[in-house]
């Protein structure tokens, strides 16, 4: 019986994941996220990119109704230096066509010129990569920490979970909605967003972001999370423990740039 119930639930959750808004409980509309990664070289590219984000990109995104926009420097993780840009939007169409929309913005084009039109002899960046995400139904909007408003000290943990199949991925998304959000809160961890990858590499996958005051708090709060009886019960449930539902985790620690709104 439990197996049949599991399959029925999986079908329902799969429908919701593939068709946002279908088979969901009524609630706030979900955001979409464009997560952009700039691979850089140490030196001139760093200042050029940060000036571009602060003086051209983020103001233009605000004019398009996107925000709050996150801009981050990779502190702990592979392939540094790397900058990340997190762009929330109300529609897939807006985010998928963001560069076309920006190209028609005269104010942006003028401010962005040193970066946007950099020559091949002195490129602004090495490579740009993009992922398009849909917010989880149970966490439909970005929730910046209070320290973002005051530009207080904060760090961010960006975690990506890859699953071995679409079915296992759907079960992991369901697991968040079955109590994991509440366990994060009980541990004193501040989630920023949870996103299901619609377009990107290494799919199926999901990505989420957490905020902490510093690395010491990150380690302490994760210890509390792992020790929570509710987590032990959820993670050992036959619904989620009978097979491996996550086979690879990418774990990055980011520092906000001065221009970040998150």
Which structural traits does this protein have?
single chain, 262 residues, alpha+beta, Alpha-Beta Plaits, eight-stranded antiparallel barrel, disordered N terminus
Provide a brief overview of the structure:
The chain is an alpha+beta fold. The chain has helices spanning 2-18, 44-63, 92-96, 98-103, 106-116, 146-150, 166-186, 215-227, 229-235, 238-241; strands at residues 32-39, 70-76, 82-89, 127-135, 155-162, 190-199, 205-212, 248-256.
Structure description:
There is one protein chain. The protein is an alpha+beta fold. It has one domain (2-256): Alpha-Beta Plaits (2-Layer Sandwich), CATH 3.30.70. 42% of the residues lie in helices and 26% in strands. The protein is built from 10 helices and 8 strands. Strands 1-3-2-8-5-7-6-4 form an 8-stranded antiparallel beta barrel. A hairpin with a 5-residue loop joins β6 (190-199) and β7. The longest helix is centred in the last third of the chain and has 21 residues, at 166-186. The N and C termini lie far apart (45 Å). 32% of the residues are buried. Residues 1-24 have low confidence and may be disordered.
């Amino acid at each position: 019986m439990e197996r049949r119930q599991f399959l029925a639930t999986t079908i329902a959750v799969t429908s919701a994941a593939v068709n946002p808004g279908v088979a969901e409980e009524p609630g706030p509309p979900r955001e979409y996220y464009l997560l952009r990664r700039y691979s850089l070289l140490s030196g001139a590219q760093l200042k050029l990119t940060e000036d571009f984000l602060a003086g051209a990109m983020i103001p233009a995104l605000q004019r398009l109704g996107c925000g709050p926009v996150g801009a981050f420097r990779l502190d702990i993780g592979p392939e540094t230096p790397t900058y990340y840009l997190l762009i929330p939007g109300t529609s897939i169409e807006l985010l998928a066509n963001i560069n076309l929309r920006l190209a028609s913005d005269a104010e942006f084009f003028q401010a962005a010129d040193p970066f946007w039109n950099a020559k091949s002899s002195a490129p602004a960046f090495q490579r740009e990569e993009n992922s398009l995400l849909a917010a989880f139904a149970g966490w439909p909007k970005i929730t910046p920490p209070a320290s973002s408003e005051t530009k207080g000290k904060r760090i961010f943990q960006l975690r990506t979970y890859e699953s071995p199949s679409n079915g296992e991925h759907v079960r992991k998304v369901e697991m968040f909605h079955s109590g994991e959000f509440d366990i994060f809160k009980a541990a004193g961890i501040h989630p920023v967003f949870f996103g299901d990858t619609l377009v990107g590499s290494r799919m199926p996958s999901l990505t989420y972001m957490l905020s902490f005051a510093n690395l010491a708090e990150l380690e302490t709060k994760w210890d509390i999370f792992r020790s929570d009886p509710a987590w032990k019960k959820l993670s050992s449930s036959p619904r989620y423990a009978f097979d491996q539902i996550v086979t690879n985790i990418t774990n990055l620690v980011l520092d906000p740039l001065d221009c970040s709104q998150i």
